From TrEMBL:
PROSITE patterns, A to Z: PCMT
GO cellular component, one term: cytoplasm
InterPro entries: PCMT, SAM-dependent_MTases_sf
EC number: 2.1.1.77
Main location: cytoplasm
Name this polypeptide is given: Protein-L-isoaspartate O-methyltransferase
UniProt record, GO biological process: methylation; protein repair
Gene: pcm
UniProt entry tagged with the keyword Cytoplasm: yes
UniProt KW Thylakoid keyword: no
Keywords attached to this entry: Cytoplasm, Methyltransferase, S-adenosyl-L-methionine, Transferase
Amino acid sequence: MKDTAKHQGLRNQLATVLKAKGITDKNVLKAIKKIPRHLFIDSSFESHAYQDKAFPIAADQTISQPYTVAFQSQTLEIKSGDKVLEIGTGSGYQTAVLLELNAEVYSIERQHELFRITGNLLPKLGYNPKKFIFGDGYKGLPEQAPFDKIIVTAGAPFVPKPLLSQLKVGGMLLIPVGDNTQIMTLFIRKSGKEFEKHELGDFAFVPMLEEKN
């Protein structure tokens, strides 16, 4: 669990790369500079941890590309104290970014292996979501709703209705929708029944799976 000056230097370089790609939110860049991404991936990939690339993790999943994590975090305009539901904890890297932005994070992971690994790792690094749940992200977390923001970190073939219904009025849902490549889609809840939809370009994610594994 070492984090060295060299790692810090590589994180600073990564933040510079992300800035050049259009990440302007100072708090997001600060989080990227602070979080030891190399500790969230298999040690065999450690030397590549601060490249702007996705990498395999346990349970045939991936740790998202840093640009994607930063883009989703910036798009949701996370404010201190925001109640955020994260669908697909994965490695926990996105979770750590949300926590660095002072969000109150509720995170759901459906792969048991990842739930176990990430559940051990996050507290060791000082990251404590409000709730970390082993469950089906398609159902959201009705008992904790409504949420200010909902972030989905896996490709969904359709937009799960429970997630839309669990947003506060004025809240935002950011979800990659599609089968092979996904369109990053932002929904803003305007009223009880009305949502504004924005399509924000193509991304590639691992598929969002129903039920628990």
